[in-house]
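CORE FACILITY INTAKE
Project code: CF-77B
Contact: R.S. (postdoc)
Sample description: multi-component assembly, two entities in total
Requested service: structural model of the whole complex
Turnaround: standard
Below are the sequence entries exactly as provided by the requester. Do not edit them.
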Amino acid sequence: MQVIKEFLDTFFSDVGVFDAICVTFQMAFSATFISSVLGVLLGLLLERAEFIGKKIVIRINRTLMGVPPVVVGLIVYMLLMRRGPLGKLNMLFSIQGMIFAQVLIITPIICGMTYTSLVSRAPAIRAFARTMGATPIQTQWLVVRELKNELYFAVVTGFGRSISEVGAVMLVGGNIKGHTRTMTTTISLLKSQGIFTEGLTLGILLLLMAFIIQSLADFFQRGEKSDENY
Amino acid sequence: MKIIDLIKKQGDFELRTKSVTIEEGKIHGIIGGNGCGKTTLCKLIMGMILPDSGKIDYEGLDIREITMTAQRPYFIRGSVYENICYPLKIRHIQPDEQKIDAWLFRCGLEGKKRQYARSLSSGEQQKVSMIRALIFDPRFIMIDETLSNLDPENLELFEQVILEIQKERPVTWMLISHRLAHIYKMCEVLHFMYKGEILASGSKDKILFGTEDERIRRFVANEVIKMEGNHAAFKG
């Protein structure tokens, strides 16, 4: 790790690139994990439950899928600031606060994509499970198993949104070097300092890392498909 | 099993049955034109949809002992083997490899055991769907047009299978098919449906040839004309 840190320090100005990379991935993985659990569960619930106002809830969720991150950042900032309702948690300008903001941004995306996949395919899967004599839990598990490609895509989309986000992270995290500075906020800082080449290099590095992670995830997905085809 | 005054509305369609008894251990046939409610009735029996009123008295039969095969069967992601094993897996029953191999061989599906089930032809899929429904020895089996895509040879094979199982253990069958010859050959009891109602139930000869009901006579006559037409076209 120390070698990588020194290697990056020789290329970039004193903006804490190595720490920014660590913070970025810590935040993106944590936020994606929490949002995936919440989003998939909410999507399953939304598809299964029948209640008054369901259509409005779906519409609100779809609206939240496109909410500007900076708006979420502002709301979370107001919630977490010392005089805010959650001020006692001391989460402002911390990674936890940034994760909280990102969960609010990503969960509606994963929930909405899960719900859309379920609406079109789950009834046939449930009908089949019924004819086979599956219990309700076995049926629900089968639905998730059958839709794992769609769910995987939803999670990957959420991760992509998380890693590329800058507005909310900047507001809630405060872009503190070595603490809450992420790759995207570093790029923003480098741009404001007029160091465009380094900003662009860091951008390419961010894309490259995202590409490697996506490729690894795709590799495991493909392995499973070829197993099925025998 | 007793079907008691079921009512189920689906859009403009309404299924409305009087009290009908499905005698245990017999092969029943449901006939009727398109959209008369045959599949809806099966779905109600299967518990896939709930009636608006009325009820089904299963008379001690566990719903997990009932199965249904569809015209377009659903296949889970995985091989033919995984699909056949699914009902066993959810019952925590160890699959009997020899039994599965014997089924596949009998249905001409040897060598397809490890093939992705969704890549099979529709006829092969229907055969796998039948094996999957029979593998866990259910006591009540509904076959909703599943055999319709099979060629005469394979249709005869499954007719034979049904009759063999029927001799071995008491299973109640409910066959839905437009092939009147198949229904007449297989079934002991027929139920004729018309616009959501079960118009008549009884022995096959009584329903097909001994009825005074004009709607049933017209349906049978049309089916016979179709069969004769096919026969004439084949000869000509």
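Facility notes:
- Chain B has a mean pLDDT of 90.
- Chain B touches chain A at residues 43, 46-48, 63-70, 73-74, 76-79, 86-87, 90-91, 114-116, 119, 132-133, 136, 138 (CB under 8 Å).
Invoice: internal transfer
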